[in-house]
Structure formats: structure tokens, C-alpha cells
């Protein structure tokens, strides 16, 4: 049974082929492009379920492709996973802020890419904290309207900003957020949240979480995420 079309935009033939073979094996229908221009044409034509997008492409690069997809009314909700090389953190950050959903760093195993695809497709469009009043994430339970936080049944004493930060990250497990995205979403009432202060807030939050601190992961050079639960 076909699971849907996935568009691979990648100029390195080997990687393109490996991904296409693996996707086919998993039941997806891969379509491939070697340049950004070709990619945009292909995405418009196929309206794929998801796009795997290399950042470094000759001519129109991955960020241009991402921008063009996000600006297209019909395509803008298409999930995008960026493929990047190590050392391209600045581009990853730009891509995430432009609305890319996730990224993988080369070299990667095709299995990792497949699991990222499945996880991005599972997330759907809406997150928990946008649809409900309760965020349940591992041992953390947040009752948003009542502003209550519990960790393994024990009440957590959080500042308003720590609370919002925790709710934001835990409401979207697995999503990587840049510091700027966190600033935009976590408006501090007790604290002016800036990109630099996000790190301070995370340190404070982790202390209060104790053993559960490991659920809040640092994504080196990029930002933070709540670890994906299995
Ligand atoms: Ca490339």
C-alpha cells in the first residue's frame, strides 16, 4: 500500500538514490529533483506529503525552496525536513524560523531519515497545547487554565516564564525550536525574555525538574526541544 508521495530535493546523486530506494521499500512514492528550481516545479506538480530538502544546492538553494513553498497558499502546510551538512547551523536556524519542520545532518543513515519522516507526519498540524487545556508529557502534567504543573504527581513551583517555556516545549515533543522561536512564543511576565535569557530560563527549569531535566534537550548550535517520547 502506498503511503504517499515524498519529494527529495538533493544534488548529490548517491544520497538521492539511497533515500529513494529506502522510501520505496517503506511504501512511500519518492519523486526526486537535483536542483532547487526542479524541486519547486516537482513540489507544485505532485503536492507531496512531505519534502526532504537539501540546504546546499547549486543555484536556488534549500532556503529559497523552503521560502517559496511556505509562500505558496496551496503548499505552505507541506512538512519539510531539511538535509544539512555539519557546520550549517546558521542555515538550519534560518530554515526552522522559516517554517521547516525538522532537519537531519549528513552523514545520516536512511533509517534515521525514515524515523524523522514518520515522526514529522505523526505530529500533524496541531499540537497538544493548541488543542487542549492539559499537556501530558512523560512525568510532566500541565493544567494550563489553572496554571498548575506536576512532575510525577508532585506540584512544581515554576515562575510564569518557566511555566510557559515548559508548556511550549512539552506541548510539541520532538520539535526543535530556535531561541528566537522560543522568545516569540514565551512572552515573559516576570522576566524580559531575550535569546540569551532563554538559556538562563532553561537552566532554572532543569534544576526544578531534577531527574526529569534530561527531557529538555539542548540541540547544539540550534536551540532546544522536549525529547521525543516513544
Ligand atoms: Ca548539496
Question: What does this protein look like?
Answer:
This protein folds into 2 domains: 5-128, Rossmann fold; 132-226, Winged helix-like DNA-binding domain superfamily/Winged helix DNA-binding domain (Arc Repressor Mutant, subunit A). The protein has 9 helices and 12 strands. The protein has helices at residues 13-25, 36-46, 62-70, 89-97, 110-123, 128-131, 160-170, 179-185, 195-209; strands at 5-9, 29-33, 50-54, 80-85, 102-106, 134-137, 140-143, 148-151, 154-155, 177-178, 216-219, 223-226. It has a 5-stranded parallel sheet with strand order 2-1-3-4-5, sandwiched between helices. Strands 6-7-8-9 form a 4-stranded antiparallel sheet, with helices on one face. It has a 3-stranded antiparallel sheet with strand order 10-12-11. β11 and β12 (223-226) form a beta hairpin. α1 (13-25) crosses α5 (110-123), α7 (160-170) packs across α9 and α8 (179-185) crosses α9 (195-209). The two termini are 25 Å apart. The mean pLDDT is 92. The site of calcium ion has 5 residues, from loops.
Low-pLDDT sequence parts: none
> What would you call the structural class?
alpha/beta
Which whole number gives the mean pLDDT?
A: 92
Strand arrangement in the largest pleated sheet: 2-1-3-4-5
Question: N- to C-terminal separation?
Answer: 25 Å
Bound molecules: calcium ion
List the helices and strands and how they pair.
Elements: E1 5-9, H1 13-25, E2 29-33, H2 36-46, E3 50-54, H3 62-70, E4 80-85, H4 89-97, E5 102-106, H5 110-123, H6 128-131, E6 134-137, E7 140-143, E8 148-151, E9 154-155, H7 160-170, E10 177-178, H8 179-185, H9 195-209, E11 216-219, E12 223-226
